């Protein structure tokens, strides 16, 4: 899975970190998750702890989107076979399917092909009726991939607004409050389009705290945010949104446009949701891989958020405490965390949250020195489980005390948000390609 892993694994600690990364990503892959969570016995479809009788429906349709959507669709085809009649999913990681149409889009920025695929998805939802059983696959990345500009908002206006929000330091909930109110699909509007069909949603969660309304901007769950909330986000971060965007939000806030469906809306009467994989899925597998190698393990949290470089300093402090005082676990130990940190973009460089985390961690670890005993060096791996950190071809990076020999250059890279070339020049980037899943970030700190 990890390209050039032999080169990266130059110490036992680094090798352990990479093995934990691979174990976590594999555990979150749809082929693994669907095999464990979904089973068809005659006409009874089991999903997690619920059972649905498919004999009550004339057709079974698969709809959805996100980085892992095509892999979920393929896994569902393996489990249900010809019981699936049709479907449409939008993704940036296509795989071969027999019954479900896979339409390609782009991530993290919405694109015209994604918008076209989403129009096909909405048409398929509109065609559903009371005799339709919809299996919905909702995964991380769905907000950008399922682009469906509403009203007079153009795709270009949506792209400009999304770009500004991603660079502003706004968190995912704030970003989604805006995106939901600029979309014909998000914020529960897909549920409204699919009604009165029975909709069962399989969610691969990539947001902190498993907030269903934030995953792919919540196309099948109630939305408590409002047009006024969306306007407040633009103002809070000084976003100079295109006129069409601000006009739509202002009209909505004034009551001229219907709000997204809120809790209690009849659109959700026949909708049920199952979170079949999330950040803890990844962390549990990584923890097991570390334990099998003889390490004590500590999961800090699956909900780490905030500025990436600051979170790195805190993580390194925990690893240093483990090494110095054997608190809260004794070395050899592996400290793990998940969640989604953010980057406030002030420069014009290339990178992503996990690359900034790794660069900051490497700065804090540099006192280990290039001549330190390799057996004692702390190793830190930070990756986005979808294999795409920021808008780069790297999933993240693997660093230790030898990575930074020139602290000033590392600080300059962080100041310009240019971690990618800095880490690339030091052979520290982890590349996996698209992994087939998206379950948030994974950070592994190995303390020999």
Automatic annotation (TrEMBL):
Keywords: Oxidoreductase. GO terms for cellular component: cytoplasm. It is an enzyme of class 1 (oxidoreductase). Its EC number is 1.1.1.81. Residues 17-250 form the MOFRL-associated domain. It comes from the Archaea. Gene3D superfamilies: Glycerate kinase, MOFRL-like N-terminal domain, MOFRL domain. GO terms for molecular function: glycerate kinase activity; hydroxypyruvate reductase [NAD(P)H] activity. Residues 334-441 form the MOFRL domain. InterPro entries: GK-like_C_sf, GK_N_sf, MOFRL, MOFRL_assoc_dom, MOFRL_protein. This is Hydroxypyruvate reductase.
